[in-house]
Amino acid sequence: MPVIPPPTTNFDSLTSILNATKVRLNEEVPSLMAVSGKILENGQYFTLQSVNTAWRKLVEHLVTVGYSALTSECIIPSFPIVASTDPASQCWLSLAGCSDSLSYYQTPALPSDFTHPLAIWERWSNQNASFPGQPMEKILDGLPTPQKTGWMGYWEWRNEAIYLPGSLVVEDLRIRYARNIQDFADSGATQWFASTVPLIRCSDPFSLFLCAEFASSRGQEALAQRFEDRAITAACKLTNRDVRADERVDIRRRSAWSQGSEYL
To answer: What is the pLDDT of residue 190?
Structure first.
């Protein structure tokens, strides 16, 4: 799939997040007023670590609640034929590559921003066919062991990999997944604090999570908890964008029983 170009508008700069954090800390911790320019300075060794810790908390919260900006899809082409016809054999696909049940290959592999799978579809490769509307069935407590056929039908997520029964036909996999966003770091001539934050209008929860991280690092746990509670409340405003959009669509959820029933 084509790469989405880097954000240009409606995205906050990391510098503005730091400034908002300083203002909020001054409001809550009056003793910092006289040294406000000294807290969370760009050159302080702990500032970047605090920023990235707060960033991970925000991203993880949004992933947990299913925020659409952290949902992505990929096509994994030409997943190899299962090498063993033993019904108990399993293939797998991870960030490091894949296995056909006997051998390991570096490609295909899951995309680098992959966190965990949400839904998977399969089709035969090189047929120019559409993927079926019904996704493969997710299994929670161990894959079934049917005889190998031209379809896989099931998948299980464990050990940071997608496990599959394998198919006697080379297949493409369409995977919908929760994605992560990389930590902030220097990039060429651009210093980390000049980075653009790649989530639209997220300065409110991000700066509050950063306030919580700063307060916690100074042993002010009660204040840190208040900041984190406010951050989660502010993050709900981001997820409400999805709610408002979803309300414009008639949604009829598929029953748990019917998922994957075409493979039974």
So the answer is: 87
